[in-house]
Amino acid sequence: MSYVDETAFLQEVADSDYKYGFVTNFEAETAPKGLSEDTVRFISAKKEEPEWMLEWRLKAYRHWLTLQDKYPRWAHIEYPDIDFQDISYYSAPSKKPKYDSLDEVDPELLDTFERLGISLVEQKMLAGVAVDAVVDSVSVATTFKEELAKEGIIFCSFGEAVQNHPELVQKYMGSVVPYTDNFYASLNSAVFSDGSFCYIPKGVRCPMELSTYFRINAAGTGQFERTLIIADEGSYVSYLEGCTAPRRDENQLHAAVVEIIAHKAAEVKYSTIQNWYPGDREGKGGVFNFVTKRGICDGDHAKISWTQLETGSSITWKYPSVILKGDYSVGEFYSVAFTKGRQQADTGTKMIHLGKNTTSTIISKGISAGHSNNSYRGLVKINKSAANARNFSQCDSLLLGDKCGAHTFPYLEIKHPTAHVEHEATTSKVGEDQIFYCNQRGIGEEQAIKLIVNGFCKEILAVLPMEFAVEARKLLDIELEGSVG
Amino acid sequence: MAILEIKNLHAKIEDNEILKGLTLTVNPGEMHAIMGPNGSGKSTLAAVLAGREEFEVTEGEVLYNGRDLLDMAPDERAREGVFLAFQYPVELPGVSMMNFLKEAVNATREHRGEAPLGAMDFIKMARERAALVNLDPSLKQRSVNEGFSGGEKKRNEIFQMAMLEPRLGILDETDSGLDIDALRVVADGVNHMRSDDRAFVVITHYQRLLNYIVPDVVHVLVDGKIVKSGGKELALVLEEKGYDWIKEHADEPVTV
Ligand SMILES: Nc1ncnc2c1ncn2[C@@H]1O[C@H](COP(=O)(O)OP(=O)(O)OP(=O)(O)O)[C@@H](O)[C@H]1O
Ligand SMILES: [Mg+2]
Fold first, then answer.
1. Centre of ligand 2 from the C-alpha of residue A292, in Å
2. CATH 1.10.1130.10: does it fit domain B4-248?
3. Which among A155, A260, B139, B252 is least buried, having the fewest CB atoms inside 10 angstroms?
């Protein structure tokens, strides 16, 4: 294959249409567009929240108002000014029952899941995964709750937690990502619709992977999820979050907040597959994904790892971070970010070392195709208090074609002389000779590229939980698919 | 019918003509050796046969089992049974040998209308064929050629050939970089694969290999053309007298 053909092929791969572009129709109750104190009150009232929750939202809203000149600009991405008055901040399925079984769930919704290949029914039977499905901002189906309850584990929607576990929510909400943290975190704190809540009691090893699927569904509805995970002393939980979104005509804003608290000797493994609609070839109609994810290792020997596969969104801005406060605590970040078309991704992590003998590992793999731009931005900060802290960072970029970009922005702030920090970075192109080598063994171009890309991501796919790894590989393959002439 | 029929082949890269009217016929069951000085076009010939498109064929034709080979895409040629053992095998970081080979074997099987090989059968076959070239079993668990030594890469090429069971095997300097024991093992592997309906073209600089893999015909390629062909004794003459002598005495019969 000549170089020109190959570039054309890669172009085609990059241009392949979004496979999951369809819309579910079910009656939605949507807030009128616009944002004011009244909107915040409307949301809180809709959710029948207690006074303290409304007060917190209002404080966040008032703080957000003071940030209007701090509209984030610094990431390596370009995007239009968002008209925050042109967004609807709340939408819920109008039938809002508490289901006892899946039979009672809106069949159209189940069908949507089915078409995404993540049917709850199947999940329930096969994988032993408890699924708290967040659709249109309201939790409509929860499984395995009883089994978890036996262990004292709380896994429910954020809204339910506000009603049923106010002491935990009040204690931890905003403790890792305060409502003053950044522009989008403030916005989320004011208008968050729903999300997931998880509490693992002392010494309990959660017996199954906990997972939540997020969907954006109602047209023009901003999606503001909020997740709070608390792992008490010596506990363990693996939490999965995956999402795909239907095709849309106008940009959709997604600004989630995830907070994780790992107490002494607790371990939280948080895995994500992110596949929001990336927009059409020109990037029109894609999701803007501005997320604040942060965890704190609050006690000695605590561990938090973030693993993510990012393939979606027209714009992604996301830096899952760990504050390593406890001595000997461990933070990990494993990421694959795939961009194509006109996608722009600015992702990375922050590892903040406060405790002694803390360790962090960052492995980031960026794959860019088409006209996309893929940036890694990472901060490793080693404080005065963090004696013997260690960090290892590796950032690899793979380019498919010659119209895309890869950038690496590592930041280091080291305030302790005993710190041991290593950083490695590579950029490579899928070589014509590599594709030819595969061809010579009878493997077609498309399959060759899939093999090479999968090989490139291997270390990350290997740390994903098993079922998720299978899904991740499938998603990567779909993303790479194009018609070969 | 001949497996391979190359007639008056001219090929160039950018503006350099490398192959300048090469003619060669390879029949089923035959073992052909091609020798020639550095830069004479041996690897270019292999690359053109395998379908690298940097090389532009400007004249001549190549028939493979009577079909126009140059009209087929590289991966189709491979599935049709053309195998090239590369002089410089490429590394595929992170791509597991077993995955890679499974893709390759099943692509060929699918092309032949056969069902894909199941996991157990595949593993069994891989174990047997690896033993054929004495390939360290741990190499099968690694990424394709990544961090392999020079000799391991060459052995791995022959292992892959044994897995894919081609009709035409082209070996480009598979012997260089092999130690003496490895040379014998690899040669045994190739000999094991010789059969009445399969043919090989072996490119080498050293007569030594031809003691193990005994050729039916030896060709001398100089400056893009085959200047002399003969029996296996031609290799000995070459070793003794060098290419300059051959160029001068191209038209004389070979005597040892
Ligand atoms: N990509 C290229 N661009 C320009 N010239 C090339 C290219 N590839 C090969 N050539 C030239 O073509 C000629 C033949 O090269 P080839 O690799 O076929 O030689 P060879 O006979 O295999 O040599 P060796 O015995 O050293 O392996 C050489 O002069 C080489 O420089
Ligand atoms: Mg050569």
1. 55
2. no
3. B252
